[in-house]
UniProtKB/TrEMBL annotation:
GO terms for cellular component: cytosol. The keyword NADP applies. It comes from the Eukaryota. It holds the Pfam family ADH_zinc_N. Residues 35-347 form the Enoyl reductase (ER) domain. The keyword Iron does not apply. Keywords: NADP, Oxidoreductase. GO terms for molecular function: mRNA 3'-UTR AU-rich region binding; NADPH binding; quinone reductase (NADPH) activity; zinc ion binding. CDD domains: QOR2. It comes from Torulaspora globosa. This is Probable quinone oxidoreductase. PANTHER family: QUINONE OXIDOREDUCTASE PIG3-RELATED, QUINONE OXIDOREDUCTASE-RELATED. InterPro entries: ADH-like_C, ADH-like_N, ER, GroES-like_sf, NAD(P)-bd_dom_sf, QOR-like, Quin_OxRdtase/zeta-crystal_CS.
Length: 351
């Protein structure tokens, strides 16, 4: 029997919860403006009130993701002040009168905004999963580190481009959080991964995680190496999280009828381009986001179950590079965006 219980989407009522004894304020990470690291603030903020069909989660760990930089820089719009964060694990500390599927004390993992905070309110049905009651803090940290990026990797190699055995796949930022997960999943599918990294230390790491070929972009020609590896044919698909700087290389690296999966802006957004650029090789171009693949309850249940099973059995390894206290998120952001890290960064939330 599976030890995880999966929750699907439903509508919320708007009635209020009475008698809550929760603190009135909490510590959070937010931005009040767009810009550089100086707009990141560690502040006191109101603990959210919950309604009849919501739960209040006291967060233990939250994952750090590159998407926070896109909101901070104004690449993605946000209503200010904006609480950062996209995923967390924690414990249910209060529930609305209409909630029957969670109890106070339940350990949960979930996807949501505003998770760089001591408390997050969440609908009792949503992108949330109940975790084993005996899960240790280290296990909660593992679930946190694997949740968003693991689901991203799983859905992208199935739905954005369905990877098949013996496909040649060009994967950028292969030593990052998504990259290391995707490298393992591609190997499980029997694909030939051509991993792009920025130094020799990262080369060794992605080889340990299953990459068949590795290109060091600091001193090797990406396109030349791809064509050499594929005997001039090109790759079946590119998974490009870099954006502007690698766009044209990725187009050239694809074979006829290849698929370009663009899912990041690490070097900046791809400039507008005419669709006719795709015509010479009949290239498919997709710009996916995770939530489009897990909107339906059945899809959420399938993918979240697959991910947690992989984590529980140890078939999917998650490299946690470093754990920072919540108040040190600014340094975590600097480290991530300067490409100093590998794997996943996690924030520990003060209790």
């Amino acid at each position: 029997m599976n030890r995880f219980r999966f929750i699907s989407v439903a509508k919320r009522s708007m009635s209020s919860l009475s008698g809550s004894s929760m603190p009135k304020t909490q510590k959070v990470i937010l931005i009040n403006d767009v810009g550089d690291y100086d707009v990141i603030q560690y502040e006191n903020y109101a603990v959210p009130l919950i309604n009849d069909n919501e739960i209040l989660i006291k967060n233990k760990f939250a994952g750090v993701n590159f998407i926070e930089a896109y909101f901070r820089k104004g690449i993605y719009p946000a209503q200010l002040p904006y609480l950062l964060g996209r995923e967390a694990t924690g414990v249910v500390v209060a529930k609305g009168h209409g909630v029957s599927n969670f109890q106070v004390g339940d350990k949960v993992g979930y996807l949501s905004g505003a998770t760089f905070a001591q408390y997050t309110k969440y609908p009792a049905v949503g992108k949330i999963v109940k975790l084993p009651s005996n899960a240790s803090d280290e296990k909660l940290k593992l679930y946190t580190a694997g949740l968003l990026q693991g689901l991203t990797a799983l859905t992208f190699i199935q739905d954005a481009y369905e990877v098949k055995k013996d496909d040649y796949i060009l994967l950028y930022a292969a030593a990052g959080g998504v990259g290391l997960i995707m490298t393992q999943l591609l190997k499980r599918k029997g694909a030939h991964t051509i991993a792009v990294v920025s130094n020799e230390e990262k080369r060794k790491l992605v080889q340990e995680f299953g990459a068949e070929y590795v290109i060091n972009s600091s001193d090797e020609d990406i396109l030349g190496k791809v064509l050499q590896i594929t005997n001039g044919r090109g790759v079946d698909s590119v998974f490009d999280s870099v954006g502007k700087d690698t766009f044209e290389i990725s187009l050239e690296a694809l074979k006829i009828k290849g698929t370009f999966v663009s899912f990041g802006n690490a070097s900046g957004p791809i400039p507008p381009f005419p669709p006719t650029m795709l015509s010479p090789k009949n290239i498919k171009f997709v710009r996916p986001q995770l939530y489009g693949y897990i909107t339906e309850p059945a899809d959420w249940e399938r993918y979240s179950k697959d991910l947690l099973d992989l984590l529980e059995t140890g078939d999917l390894k998650i490299l946690i590079n470093k754990t920072y206290p919540l108040e040190a998120y600014k340094q975590a952001a600097r480290d991530l965006e300067s490409r100093k890290t590998t794997g996943k960064l996690v924030l520990e939330i003060p209790q």
